[in-house]
Design goal:
Blueprint lengths: L4 E5 L7 E7 L2 E7 L5 E5 L13 E3 L2 E3 L6 E3 L18 E4 L2 E4 L12
Antiparallel strand pairs: 1-9, 2-3, 3-4, 5-6, 6-7, 8-9
Bound molecules: FE2/S2 (inorganic) cluster.
Length: 112
């Protein structure tokens, strides 16, 4: 059975911003886009481990603050020409409450 862990509310995260959540899996960056959709990725850029939570959110992506790779918020996949991905975490939002599935396998959704 899937277990969901409540981590806060949509309103806790600034639009086009993020919030860091400390978990047994490590730090998870939870992002809110311009349409108030919520995404969660491990807080490690697939390039050299940059803190994605400190990146700029735009157009369904976050740009890493270190070397500006663009990472797809849904899959964790780096956008070409860059290559690599970071694991994503399943997110469920109900009535503004955000829950993460932290017992999901850590394999990246993009499969790389
Ligand atoms: S560490 Fe993210 S682009 Fe280099």
């Amino acid at each position: 059975m899937t277990e969901w862990t409540l981590i806060g509310h949509v309103a806790d995260i600034p639009r086009l911003g993020s919030r860091l959540v400390e978990t047994a899996q490590g730090l998870i960056a939870v992002f809110r886009d311009g349409q108030d959709q919520i995404f969660a990725l491990h807080n490690r850029c697939p390039h050299r481990g940059g803190p994605l939570s400190e990146g700029i959110v735009y157009g369904g992506r976050v740009s890493c603050p270190l070397h500006n790779w663009a990472i797809d918020l849904k899959t964790g996949q780096a956008v070409a020409p860059d290559n690599g991905c970071t694991p994503s975490v399943p997110v469920h939002v109900k009535d503004g409450a955000i829950a993460l599935c932290l017992d999901a396998p850590q394999a990246p959704a993009c499969g790389c």
